């Protein structure tokens, strides 16, 4: 859980356990400037699913576009 507002002087990416279904909420909660994904868009271990990749990118973009200035 995010316990306080903070700004990092170091660029960072949110990673770990992100999927097309979780990335938008994770971006909104963390205010991450970027995300990383690997297994969250796989249909089988090591096999990237193009539809899951598109869904992930769309969800992430929608979350960033919906952000309001702090």
TrEMBL record:
InterPro entries (alphabetical): Aldolase_TIM (IPR013785), PRAI_dom (IPR001240), RibuloseP-bd_barrel (IPR011060), TrpF_fam (IPR044643)
Source species: Ameyamaea chiangmaiensis
This protein's UniProt keywords: Amino-acid biosynthesis, Aromatic amino acid biosynthesis, Isomerase, Tryptophan biosynthesis
Family matches, as Pfam families: PRAI
Pathway where this protein functions: Amino-acid biosynthesis; L-tryptophan biosynthesis; L-tryptophan from chorismate: step 3/5
Residue intervals of the N-(5'phosphoribosyl) anthranilate isomerase (PRAI) domain: 10-58
Domain of life: Bacteria
First-tier enzyme category under EC: isomerase
Gene Ontology biological-process entries: L-tryptophan biosynthetic process
Molecular function per GO: phosphoribosylanthranilate isomerase activity
Catalytic activity of the protein: N-(5-phospho-beta-D-ribosyl)anthranilate = 1-(2-carboxyphenylamino)-1-deoxy-D-ribulose 5-phosphate
EC nos: 5.3.1.24
UniProt-recorded name of the protein: N-(5'-phosphoribosyl)anthranilate isomerase
């Amino acid at each position: 859980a995010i316990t306080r507002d903070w700004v990092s002087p170091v660029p960072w990416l949110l990673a770990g356990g992100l999927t097309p279904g979780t990335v938008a909420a994770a971006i909104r909660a963390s205010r991450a400037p970027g995300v990383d994904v690997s297994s969250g868009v796989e249909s089988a271990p090591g096999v990237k699913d193009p539809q899951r990749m598109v869904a992930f990118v769309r969800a992430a973009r929608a979350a960033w576009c919906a952000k309001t200035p702090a």
